[in-house]
Amino acid sequence: MKITVLIIAFLAIGLSVLSAQSGDLGGGVTWQFSGGTLTIRGTGPMPVSFPASVPPWLSVRNQITTVVIEDGVTSLPNGGFAECPMLTQVTIGRGVTELPGAVFARSGITSITIPEQIVYIDLAAFDGANRLETLYFNAANCADFSPMLVPPLFHNTVTPALKTVVIGSTVRKIPDYLLTGASMVTSLTINSGVTAIGRHAFRDCIGLTNIVLPDSVTSIGNAAFSGCRALASVTLGSEIIIIGNGAFADSGITEITIPQSITTVEDAAFSGCTRLRRVYWNAATVNDFNSTSAQFRDCNVIEEIIIGDNVRQIPAWAFHSLPSLEKVTIGSRVTSIGNRAFSGCDALMEIISRAARPPQLGSMHAFYGLDQSWITLEVPNTAQSINAYKSAEVWKDFQFNQ
């Protein structure tokens, strides 16, 4: 009798365990757990949430190492795969377009790929995913994140182990605030295909030391890399057109090359870059700035400005009030220099002009207020050029180095 009872008990336990390995989620979607892998398959949406936030795979949650969501599934539940401490790998099928609240919160994932079709990610989707180290972001048209909601999606307080980010070639715009405050990220790859970097996208990523933007990028949003204090090296692509307000403000860059393609450098783009020493300016068609422009405000250690040979006009007020600027090189095709472009640069000691004829100066000339008798001027070593500069207003007042 006792043996019969024991057999029945063991059978009941076995059936209970077996029943916990698979189930129907409704709407033509099912789940199955086998060998550490939780597979969601079928056609249609999963439930928006589970009763009392308890998923049907609760009894095996601590054994789940892999989640596979097949292509026919079109939605995921809030908190659906949260609290899975052994979960390290996730495959999201092509039918899913949104990642809802806490869907992978406090899970053990170490790497995640955001697929191309994702258009929305809840800010709490990865909350407390403390082991997440690598992000592959491939969402082509993901919605921007709200500046009013904190902490941001991959902020250091949300995913503190995140170190490596790869932006895929399917992405067109990197969303606003995508990685704001992801302070442990040390490796950022932006692949060709990306055309725009959103506002504040990488703000305060203080672990970044260098970035290379592909030629496909045409615009950098406001404050996109502001506060990246360790960011010493930045390479801008050859097709970039707009650098937004404060895009690199308070970053650690030591020199910057402004490409020929640039047409707009907005206010405070490089303000507070206290390690910036050298600027290579190749922008051919940038409009004049004004007296309140502060593209290089508080860049107090800039020592040298090199104007490229493709530049025709140096904008008004472009480099005013740089207290450590000592040397300026003017490209061979420069024909005019805007009002007060170098006014207030009281440390200026040397100008090298490669232009055969002296560039025209406005009514409030480029070097307004400087003591030109202390500044040496080197011009092309031909009699025609030397005579032209020595007879031109303002230019004639420099100390010629010929």
Summarize the structure.
This protein has 402 residues and is mainly beta. The chain is built from two helices and 30 strands. The chain has a seven-stranded parallel beta sheet, with no helix packed on it. It has a five-stranded mixed beta sheet with strand order 1-2-3-5-7, with no helix packed on it.
Average pLDDT, to the nearest integer?
Answer: 93
Strand order of the largest sheet: 20-22-23-25-27-29-30
Helix content bin:
under 10%
Number of extended strands? 30
User: Distance between the terminal alpha carbons, to the nearest Å?
Assistant: 116 Å
Coarse shape: elongated
**Helix tally?**
2
Largest sheet: 7 strands, parallel
Low-confidence stretches: 1-19
Strand fraction equals 15-25%
Given helix and strand content, the structural type is: mainly beta
Rounded radius of gyration (Å):
30 Å
Structural overview:
The protein has helices at about 1-20, 385-390; strands at about 20-25, 30-35, 35-40, 45, 65-70, 75, 90, 100, 110-115, 120, 135, 165, 175, 185-190, 195, 210, 220, 235, 240-245, 255-260, 265, 280, 305, 315, 325-330, 335, 350-355, 360, 375-380, 400. The chain is built from two helices and 30 strands. The model is unreliable at about 1-20 (pLDDT under 50). The N and C termini lie far apart (about 115 Å). The strands form eight sheets. A seven-stranded parallel β-sheet has the order 20-22-23-25-27-29-30, with no helix packed on it. Strands 1-2-3-5-7 form a five-stranded mixed β-sheet, with no helix packed on it. By secondary structure, it is mainly beta.
